[in-house]
């Protein structure tokens, strides 16, 4: 989870998501097809065994088990999120497994990490929440450097025939997951803004990577891109 579309003055974004942290955790781990989407993200990232992988907007670190399985015992997962509440849940879940993990409270657009310590990075359901997702992705590419891997997993409205009938429900889902007042402040549908930002982020990844791949899942609502930075 990262900076949302807009932060109402009455409730900061970290506070908003902290209040919903446990509900978010349930949805993040048990929501429909979510496991398949997370597997697709890690498969696309394809990190080398023993690598250090940073997840931006990690939320309650629902992706952590998938990443760590790919990395093996010598690898390291680092989660970054701006919300103390979701990180608290992530640490509790890790502690219950005997390893609280490396979880950092920070901004995905200003990574609080040393470039030489990062081999790959990823973000799940993040791009639509960033004011300038393309700039963020370019910053992540600079962080991992040439030869580093980047992967994105996002949701946006589908263009697939037979599934477009579900777009209104998806629009309500996006609006319900945004801080109060977001739609009014934007002056248009948060789902439309999310579509634009997801497209911009995935386009920036393609521009930064020599071998970028892209696929859609879950009726076209899920978008996965990955590549090796040039």
UniProtKB/TrEMBL annotation:
A molecular-function term among this protein's GO annotations: methyltransferase activity
Domain annotation Methyltransferase type: ranges: 55-151
UniProt key word Membrane: no
UniProt keywords, alphabetically: Methyltransferase, Transferase
UniProt keyword Plastid present: no
EC number: 2.1.1.-
Gene Ontology BP, a term: methylation
Protein name: Class I SAM-dependent methyltransferase
One Pfam family named in its UniProt record: Methyltransf_11
Domain of life according to the entry: Archaea
Organism: Halobaculum halobium
